């Protein structure tokens, strides 16, 4: 039933208001259908899409009846709350204004259909009321968005360069507390198995309750963690959900908690409380949720970095122990094989077996030496070397002879021009040459030779180039070639992926460098070596 205009309402305006009341459900339904064209709106359930719009529509109706004066005298908090809710859903300002444009079209369409003869002042009042709602929504949206961006900037600022979770949490909590002026306390609890434990607290509870923990699913924080949804209390000190004795004794009123999420997984809970307010403003809740979301991402990243550091440290300890404990008995095996091979009574068949064992043992020794070199390079930045006068051609020939034994049937060509003598560490350079040649054999065309060329670059330096024919190295892999524990996708043998890393470390220890060229004609690793390397270089 349509009500009559109230006292003091101009009849056309009062009639327009009652028309809006009469067709309220139709207006909301048509507006919802119009909004569903936007993908952001399409994913929202009906109650979240409508949100505050029913009461916004009521406020517009009242404003129409008063000629627009009611909104001017008492701003519509529901229009502002609607804008804040849309901000939380990821709407842009243009999207919020677009919703009001849809509402305007729906209203005018229904009014023209049901009251085509309604006088112009009614439509003017409706226009004015909608515009006032738009203005209030835009204003609150802009203010809230500005505060949110400021808070996110502060979070990024305080977390910059912080690697440890224990250092990060107090910084994040201070920013979370700064975002809402009415906050007297704040805390972050992280999930540890089936428990939530307070990891940092500030304000009222600073220094207290730091050993407090609660099971997931129990108490206030446990309920937030179990449901994965925010929880708000108006009187925390008397609410049975609050289990912390200190919070109950403190007289805390408003308490608001949000889950810290990694995807759908709850990694913790952040909550804020107030001694004076029974509830926080809508924009403060939105701000706290948004800041907590960013904090959750940073906490997860910090925990992942910590786990990675622990894994790397464990790996390095295992490598160091293995390298030390394996190398000595392995050398005993290699020396014993050499002695057996020298004996005249060793038969031909036994000699072949010993040679196979010798090749395998030397390959293992090479892997172990690579691991030891990696450890030295990793912790000292530059490998320690002991330079002495050496002929690079002799070093190369000795290495190539050993490689030929382990790779029968492959062709390795060696060429040299000019003076290639200098002061180097022959053992380290042997590792460099061996790694580059082995790498070329692994990735090159098995029918094509591997070329090792030496040349005098000038009076102060020598060039070593190792070339293989075959498919070029993909451009995206070249920047990562010298990283440890990386192997190409087409390697023809197993290994740790340390060969090029160690080769580069040896070159750097001598003050040299390695460059790579790769195209359809083949791949070249070119090493520039100064003739004089500093004795005992250790890097820093």
Structure notes:
The protein contains 17 helices and 13 strands. The radius of gyration is 38 Å and the shape is elongated. With 540 residues, the chain is of the alpha+beta class. The strands form three sheets. It has a six-stranded antiparallel β-sheet with strand order 3-2-1-6-5-4, with helices on both faces. It starts with 10 loop residues before the first helix and ends in a 10-residue tail after the last strand. It folds into four domains: 145 residues, Globin-like; 144 residues, Beta-Lactamase; 64 residues; 150 residues, Histidine kinase-like ATPase, C-terminal domain (Heat Shock Protein 90, 2-Layer Sandwich).
Short description:
The protein has helices at 11-22, 24-35, 39-42, 46-50, 53-65, 69-73, 77-88, 93-114, 120-159, 165-178, 219-227, 245-249, 282-342, 348-380, 392-406, 426-443, 499-509, and strands spanning 185-192, 195-203, 213-215, 231-233, 255-262, 265-273, 388-391, 412-417, 421-424, 450-458, 461-468, 513-519, 522-530.
